[in-house]
Give the backbone structure.
Amino acid sequence: MDQAWAALLGTGLGVAGTLCTSGLTYASARRQAHDQGLVEHGRALRGERREAYLAFMQAAEPVDDVLHRIAHQDGVPASARDAPPPVEVLDAAVQELGSAVFALYRAQARLDLMGPEPVAEDAVNVWSDVRSLRAHLEGVLHGVREGLPDDGYRTGLEDAVDAVERSREKFTRSAREVITAPP
């Protein structure tokens, strides 16, 4: 009878060992699948974020054209840079900035979804600074049309342009950190 008990105990231990091994294998496979899913999700999210960041930067490209025409006044002698440009140039700049503000708003809304929050906040700052630049130029345009003196034009313009450039640089830095951070 002792041999029967020994055989039964051995068989029971073998079954228990097989069940434990199966359970551990199952848990390991589930964990590996979960980890792989996290890696794939992170990779997909990084790609979607990169696309959203690039779309935002592309929406801001028209702002560069305006900055070169208005702030840097390419091709205008230095002595004439303190006075506002002609009405047609100002009007075109205001229109282009209006389109850029709308495009930035749409691209920024996507960044709210894609995140992370600091990058989305930096995008809001870019949008806001471009709106401020547009508002400044609208005021200058109104003054030029009304024949008002242009006191403070250059200082106000430089402040608005500096704010736009700083916020764009900060957005670019933040976006780069997110994209290049290891998973």
Notes: The chain is about 85% helix and 0% strand. Residues 118 and 174 are 7 Å apart (CA to CA). The first helix runs from residue 2 to 59.
